[in-house]
TrEMBL record:
<dbReference type="InterPro" id="IPR000847">
    <property type="entry name" value="LysR_HTH_N"/>
</dbReference>
<feature type="domain" description="HTH lysR-type">
    <location>
        <begin position="1"/>
        <end position="58"/>
    </location>
</feature>
<dbReference type="Pfam" id="PF00126">
    <property type="entry name" value="HTH_1"/>
</dbReference>
<dbReference type="GO" id="GO:0003700">
    <property type="term" value="F:DNA-binding transcription factor activity"/>
</dbReference>
<comment type="similarity">
    <text>Belongs to the LysR transcriptional regulatory family.</text>
</comment>
<dbReference type="InterPro" id="IPR036390">
    <property type="entry name" value="WH_DNA-bd_sf"/>
</dbReference>
<dbReference type="GO" id="GO:0043565">
    <property type="term" value="F:sequence-specific DNA binding"/>
</dbReference>
<dbReference type="InterPro" id="IPR036388">
    <property type="entry name" value="WH-like_DNA-bd_sf"/>
</dbReference>
<keyword id="KW-0804">Transcription</keyword>
<dbReference type="InterPro" id="IPR005119">
    <property type="entry name" value="LysR_subst-bd"/>
</dbReference>
<keyword id="KW-0805">Transcription regulation</keyword>
<dbReference type="InterPro" id="IPR058163">
    <property type="entry name" value="LysR-type_TF_proteobact-type"/>
</dbReference>
<protein>
    <submittedName>
        <fullName>Transcriptional regulator</fullName>
    </submittedName>
</protein>
<dbReference type="Pfam" id="PF03466">
    <property type="entry name" value="LysR_substrate"/>
</dbReference>
<dbReference type="GO" id="GO:0006351">
    <property type="term" value="P:DNA-templated transcription"/>
</dbReference>
<keyword id="KW-0238">DNA-binding</keyword>
Length: 290
């Protein structure tokens, strides 16, 4: 029984089909189908029930999937143990935010690839909520205040944000000075998020409202510059616009509560060494953020 066939089966099981599993693995459907056929022949049971809409695990497949995943994880740990110090191999799948990810995270991932030429790094940039387990990611990088979940999170550094608007917006609508006044303004948001402001040592949680929404911060930045409302954005992506005067800070007496940059991973006893190395590199970059 080939360990790579086991890995392919686990990917297909988690992805919900041969096509999506092949896409995750970056190989052809024919390679995946042959691996599954070999595995089913070795076991003498059918693991997947194929139909026109994809493939579903049989009862035997559901039972075998958990055991196969554990075997693959143990093999990965064993390989890492005998590798020369510093060497990383295999594949690392990362879910990263689209907002400032390509500009601030991509250089770190590129440096990781340069240091470890045998490591395959696959990064998906999106501001949508990614299910790491269901979509087969080794880890994710998230920014903000984390929701409660069973994922394991490591804060690699602080992230600071501001509420900003264009001078034109302030000229027309005025500048809010209290949380209650802020609720009367147009908020530029990704969805129905909560804004957390500081009132001295106390945290004030607000549910802002607005007519313009977008699923990433870069689009909200453009809307703020265009004068459509007030946006809550990371300082790292608004710094130049504050210097140029295209944006001005608002609610300075009630600053936004500092958030964090986190590496999150599915629950497990030990993080893979490649995830630990990525975490350490991110701490080097973000741990001393001003």
């Amino acid at each position: 029984m080939d360990i790579e066939d086991l890995r392919i089966f686990v990917e297909v099981a988690d992805a919900g089909g041969v096509t999506s599993g092949a896409r995750r693995l970056g190989v052809s459907k024919s390679i995946v189908s042959r691996a599954l056929a070999r595995l089913e022949a070795d076991l003498g049971v059918q693991l997947l029930a194929r139909n026109t809409r994809g493939a579903a695990l049989t009862e035997a497949g559901t039972t075998f999937r958990d055991h196969a995943a554990k075997v693959c994880a143990e093999i990965d740990v064993a390989k890492e143990t005998i590798l020369p110090a510093g060497d990383l191999r295999g594949r690392l799948r990362i879910a990263a935010p689209l907002t400032f990810g390509p500009t601030h995270l991509a250089p770190i991932l590129a440096e990781m690839g340069r240091r470890h030429p045998d490591l395959h790094i696959h990064t998906s940039y999106s501001d949508r909520f990614v299910d790491l387990v269901a979509e087969g990611y080794d880890c994710g990088i998230r920014v903000g205040h984390l929701r409660d979940s069973n994922l394991i999170a490591k804060c690699v550094g602080p992230i600071y944000g501001k509420l900003v608007a264009s001078p034109e917006y302030i000229k027309v609508r005025g500048a809010p000075e209290t949380p209650d006044e802020l609720l009367d303004h147009e908020a530029l948001m990704q969805g129905t998020e909560i804004w957390q402001l500081m009132d001295g040592e106390a945290i004030v949680k607000l549910h802002p409202r607005g007519r313009f929404k977008a699923d990433n911060g870069t689009a909200l930045l453009a809307a703020a510059i265009a004068g459509l409302g007030i946006a809550y954005l990371p300082e790292r992506i608004i710094r130049d616009h504050l210097v140029s005067g295209a944006l001005v800070p608002v609610m300075t007496r009630h600053p936004v509560r500092p958030a964090g940059v986190y590496v999150i991973r599915p629950p497990g006893q030990h993080p893979a060494r490649k995830v630990r190395v990525l975490t350490e590199m991110l701490i080097e970059c973000f741990g001393d953020a001003p």
